[in-house]
Amino acid sequence: MYYYLFKNNLILSKTLIDKPNYQIITEEQAKNHSGKIYILNPMNPKISRRSFIISNKSMCFLENETLMLLSSLNNSSDKNSLVPSWLEEKFKEGVVISVNPNYPNYEDVFTYSSPKKWNINVVGLGDVGATLLTGLKLLGTNSINTLGIFDLDKNKVTRLKFELSQILSANGNESNLKIQVLEESELFNCDMFVFCVSVGVPPIGKEEKDVRLVQFEGNRKVLKHYGKLARNANFKGVFAVVSDPVDLLCKSLFEDSNRDEKGNMDYKGLAPEQIRGYGLGVMNARAVYYSSLNCETANYITEGRAYGPHGEGLIIANSIENFNEDLTNLLTQKTKSANLEVRSSGFKPYIAPALSSGTLSLLDTIAGNYHYSSNFLGGTFMGCKNRYIHGCTENELVPIPSLLMKKLEETYTLLSEHPNL
Question: Domains of the chain by range and CATH?
Fold first, then answer.
């Protein structure tokens, strides 16, 4: 193992690094380093992340990324005998980060710093965007500096500029959060960009089997435009996808933003950890609601987990500790069809998604709290419980039962082999 200092960061590598600005040091010096620790692990960027939080020894020097990275039962750490024992405590602190030097801009990981207060720009001011913004204005006073708004419909912009600016309690604390009207050239002057554009949402009574997939092609075309803008702006913040279907859109965004003018993948666009899909939060919330109606599933809120996409392929595990396939299938079906129940009442289901998947999950992202969102794993975006710290993703590790892992693999294959990608 080789140890280096670069811009006051400790870097570990299995091989010698031929860079004059990387200062080689002894292991004893490395032990006394305080702060983040980066382990270099070159992998194919098409199917591996630029960076992620290492939670245990088995995650060091991966050969490939698989769903076993979500399970605490993954103990294949024997091959990592090079990893020094003194790092064990550092794993628990969440300060050890895997970095893939095959990304051209991998050194950006070393210089990332979280903003004290976030500047958030939202594009798409329809039902979802407007509701999400309302939630952020009410709840984000302590963590958000500005909310930037943009839409091609200038009437929506004007309306929300007035409405959001006039949400205020008697003590006036909310006035510290400023509302800014944006030009397209200003969209990526922020810490988080939130995509809420929805094209082709079926009207009530005209639903397909999965309303979300109907929107994919239209939303992808619009998203591609903003992905190119982010690339050209050398955007370093979080690109949050709220529009449906989030998992597939995240993957298309990663690929579209990382192509050069000739269409070749050069990986100089958005890094995987910058792209996050927000659709699973409301599925978890719906699962909590339906599970509470049945005493057999009431433990979901403390023992259960949601995985996969915001639609077909969703898995609502009734319990990690006491997994039951029948109860899991029951909860999954009820949760998956919940949006159709709302639509049958004559209304489009956007309030709960905008707040549970949007506002609340975005605020948890900012705070570094565990929440539900989609992130990159082995070349595919898939939803699970995770947190965003030090500019990287740390997926929650739980002891996933073998029957549940089989279901996760089926969903992962479904997302990986989607015909539209």
Answer: 2-111 (no CATH), 118-277 (3.40.50.720), 280-416 (3.90.110.10)
